[in-house]
Design goal:
About 40% of the residues lie in helices and about 15% in strands. The chain is of the alpha/beta class. It has a three-stranded parallel β-sheet. Strand 4, helix 5 and strand 5 form a beta-alpha-beta unit. Helix 4 packs parallel to helix 5. The two termini are about 20 Å apart.
């Protein structure tokens, strides 16, 4: 969207998706650097695995913008852009707690276990749920941010019986 909107400033845009494979992401970035790109926008799945290639980008004078994740204290970058993931977790948890009037059993479905935003959102949700003694957490099951995986987890939990689920919290 931004490239199209600012077409007078952006001659070309190359997009790569490494499918959560840090080695592939590093190789993609290295190939883009070798192709002579002017800048990088990176959502780093695994920060330590990208430290070397992003340091190489800085040595070449290629500015890097980290988006959502990437441990800005570990990775060389020009800018880090993110939302307040903890607040996202807090707001969604508060909505559930209020709708349940502070009473009920919860199933929590955070996203990708290795992703910093998912952990920050879960931390926010747990902090809110912890303020409501009438809420109990039945389970925390990671979905990998895959909608189908979330459906499978809920279906399996319902099929197994046991305590009823009053609400399902998920981070995205």
């Amino acid at each position: 969207y931004g490239a199209v909107r600012h077409a007078a400033l952006v001659a070309s845009l190359a997009v790569r998706h490494a499918g959560l494979d840090v080695d592939r992401q590093a190789a993609d970035i290295a190939a883009l650097l070798d192709a002579g790109i002017d800048g990088l926008v990176v959502s780093a799945n695994h920060a330590a695995g990208l430290a070397e290639v992003l340091a190489a980008a800085e040595r070449r004078g290629v500015p890097t913008v980290l988006v959502d994740r990437g441990q800005p204290d570990l990775l060389t970058h020009s800018c880090f852009v993110t939302c307040d993931d903890r607040t996202i977790g807090e707001i969604t948890a508060r909505w559930i707690a209020e709708r349940l009037r502070g009473q009920g059993a919860l199933l929590l479905l955070p996203g990708l276990h290795g992703a910093e935003p998912a952990h920050r959102r879960l931390e926010g949700a747990l902090a809110v749920f912890g303020r409501y003694p009438g809420l109990s957490i039945l389970d925390i099951a990671w979905t990998g941010w895959q909608q189908q995986r979330g459906r499978e987890i809920v279906a399996a939990r319902l099929a197994a019986g046991g305590a009823p689920i009053d609400a399902v919290w998920c981070d995205s």
